[in-house]
Structures are given as C-alpha cells and as structure tokens.
Amino acid sequence: MAKFTLEEHRRVGPVLVVGLTGRLVMGDGDEKLDAALQVLINRGERALLLDCADVSAIDSQGIRALVRNTVSLHNRGGHLKLLRLTPRVRTVLEVTRLLSVIEAFEDEDAALRSF
Fold it and tell me: Mind listing the domains of the chain with CATH numbers?
C-alpha cells in the first residue's frame, strides 16, 4: 500500500500542476492533501491542476479535501481541476457526482487551455 505524497509542482503559465501519488483516503492522504492545498491557496495560487495518474484510491475524506479546496479556490476567484483520473478514482467521483462540480481531463493541454 503506497503512502500518499504530493509530487513536485511545476508551473505552466498561470497554472500550477501538482502531481499526486498514493491513496487519497482517511488517515493517509486526505489531511496531507488538504493542508498542502491550503498552503498553496493561502500563498495566492488561483489555478491548480491536480495530476491524479498515480492516485490508486479515494474515499469520502479524500472527496471532502477536494471539495473543501475547490470551494476555497472558487471563493477567491480561482479554479481547481483534475487530470488523468485512474479508472477506480473516476468511478468513485462519478458515483458521487463530484465530476459535475470539478472538471476532469485526460489531456493536459486541454486542461491547461480550460483555465
């Protein structure tokens, strides 16, 4: 079971691309993701693209972290979007209807253009 980590960030124009790895679940990745995104938002980031290609699982606490930070960014005039969801994570986000609130992309160029 891989521990959750945030990979290196890279800037593409105004967008900060953040790589995520591991399980976005209670007791592992949910708090780490929430804290890291809050730091980025508080320092002024307004366009975040989370690359989820290496996220193997998500639960209700991981969803809570995504929703909380999406709302926080929206309230500050920003956007959080998702990139390269794994089939397992995509299914959870579809069932919970979160993909109707947070945009998700398979193609990075398309995601970057959407900002």
Answer: 5-107 (3.30.750.24)
In the numeric block, which tokens belong to residue 5?
A: 């980590």
Predicted TM-score (pTM) above 0.85: yes
Is 3 in a helix, a strand, or coil? coil
How far CA 1 is from CA of 22, 25, 44, 57, in Å, comes to 8, 12, 33, 10
Cβ contacts of 89 within 8 Å, gap of 6 or more:
24, 52, 55, 56, 57, 58
Q: Report whether 81 contacts 48 (CB < 8 A).
A: yes
pLDDT in tens, 78-99: 999 999 999 999 999 999 999 9
Q: What residue has token string 């730091």? A: 39
Its sign, for the CA torsion 28, 101, 90, 47, is negative
Bridge partners for 11 per DSSP: 16
Tokens 């929206």 belong to 74
Query: Which pLDDT does position 1 carry in this prediction?
Result: 46
